[in-house]
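Homework help thread (please don't just give me the answer)

Our assignment gives two proteins as sequence + C-alpha cell strings and asks us to describe the second one. The first is just a warm-up. Here they are:
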Amino acid sequence: MTTSALPAEVLDVRDADLVRDGTALLHRVSLTVRPGEHWALLGANGAGKSTLLGLLGALTHPTRGTVRVLGHELGRVDLRTLRSYVGHVNPRHPLRSPLTVRDVVLTGLTNSVEPVPRWRPTAEQETEADRLVQLMGLGHRREARWPTLSQGERSRTLIARALMPSPRLLLLDEPATGLDVAGREQLVERLDTLRTAYPELASVLVTHHVEELPPGTTHALLLRDGRVLASGPADDVLTGELISVCFDHPVTLSRVEGRWNVRARHRSTTG
C-alpha cells in the first residue's frame, strides 16, 4: 500500500450503514474530511458517535456504503497497515503497568499497550518522543509514571503517543472525559497548537460538549439516532437551533474568542 502522496480526501464516507445484531446503528452517513481540517462530531449518548469513529479509524466495516481512509477503501486494503497512518486517542487506554510518560509515548511506534519485548527505539525516535511530550506541555512530567498522572495528563500523553508514528489523521474519542476545568483548558490549548505544528494533519474529535472544542475547529457533524442531522463548516452547523434539535433540548449557543458556550433556553409559559 502506497500513501506517499496526500490524497485529496483523508476520509470519504458515502452512504454508510452499520447494522449490528439486527439493529441499525448508522444510517446513510456521509462525510468528507480533507487535509488540515479539524472536525467536531457531536451527538447525544447513543447517537452513534463512537460507532462512526470506529469506521473512520478502520476498526470496523460498514454493512452498506463505502468508507475510504487515506484513499483506500475498507474491504480492499490491509487494515493493519492502514491503521499505522491513523492516530486513535481513547481515554480508556487499558494500560496497567507503571510506564513513564515517555515510555507510553514510545508505544505509539509499535501500536501496542505495553512495550514490545526486545524492541528498542532509535535515538531519533527517543528525541521525537521527547519533542512530543514537550509539545503537549508535559516536559516536566516526562519521567512520571502512569498511575501518578492526572486524567488530563493522561489524555495529553495519549495524544503525544498517537502522534508518534506521524499519522495523517487523528481521531479523538471524548478526550476530555473526566477532566476538571483546568485539565479541560490545558487539553484544548494543546489541541489547538496542532494546527500550526501539523498544518496537513486532519482530525475528528468526538464530544457531547461544545465547550470542549478548540477554537481551530473548522467543521462539525451532528448525529442524531445514527443519522446525520447537519454537516459542514463549524459556523454553519454549530448553531443554537441545530444543537437544540440534536440534543432534543432548547439551548442558546454563543461564541466568544473562538470558544463555544451553551446554556439552556427557557421555554416560555403562559397563564
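The one we have to describe:
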Amino acid sequence: MTGPTIWIFITIALIAANLPWLSDRLFGLIPLPNGTKAGWLRLLEWLIFYFITGGIAIGLEKKLTGGIHPQDWEFYVIGLCLFLVFALPGYIYLYDFKKKKCNYN
C-alpha cells in the first residue's frame, strides 16, 4: 500500500471500530425505536464493521498489488485484536465518561 492510502484506511478502521459505541443509531444511520442500543447489539454491529473493514482492506490490497496474499487464521485473529484495540476509546467514552458525566470537582 502507498503511504496516504494506509493512513486513510487506518482512519476508516478507527471510525468503524468506534462508531457502535459512539452512536445510538444502528450503523450510525438508522434510528432505533427506543432510542438506545443494547450492549449485544453494539457488539454485533462492531463485529459487522470488522468484516466490512476487512473487505475494504482486501479490496485495497487487490487494487494496489494486483493480487491477494493468502493468510492463515493467525493473521485474522491479530486483525480482530487490533480492531478491538481501535474500539477502546469509544468503549471507554460510552461506559466510563458519558454515563458518569465526568464530575471530578
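TA reply:
I won't write it for you, but here's a hint about the kind of observation we're looking for: Residues 97 and 103 are 9 Å apart (CA to CA).
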